[in-house]
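To whoever is on call:

I kicked off a structure prediction for a single chain this morning and the downstream step that reads the tokens threw a length-mismatch warning. I double-checked the sequence; it's 158 residues and nothing unusual in it as far as I can see. Pasting both halves so you can look.
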Amino acid sequence: MTVLTRLRAAAGELRVPRLELPVGSKVRVRIRARDVMIAVHEPVGLSALNVLPGIISEIGPSDGPIVELRLDCSGDALIARLTRQSIATLKLSNGKRVYAVIKSVAFDRRAVGTSSDMAKSADVEAVAAEDLFAAATSQDPQSPDPMAADRIAMPGEG
């Protein structure tokens, strides 16, 4: 049984562990740099449920083996921490289109909240779009696909 909540953000759709919030609630999501993988082609066949397209806007200094990338994901800033070897192997550079991959289990209770005092360096503003647990338990019996009863409620929409 699915126990996730789907969030809508400028960066794209995020699936996180179930939140006890009404649809339409505004939340802040902290995405830790260490939890972000980078792909140069849109990945398929992954267990990770969150894939966000983005463009590399900055590659930090590479004094040691670790480098931080800043991504622009449709206006949301995301930071990924990689090794210099990965930067070289993937031929990453400013302006390159990439995909950020984040596992749903990377979002714990401290990473998703409504508090404005959460760190803002790589936070994403999002809106709770759907409780996938409720959708899975109330799906139309005529439809075997739990996403067929998909309902999105955004602030200001009727």
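Update from on-call: the warning came from a stale cache, not from the record. Cleared it. Sanity check on the structure: Strands lie at 4-9, 12-17, 26-30, 37-39, 50-59, 66-73, 76-83, 97-102, 112-113, 123-131.
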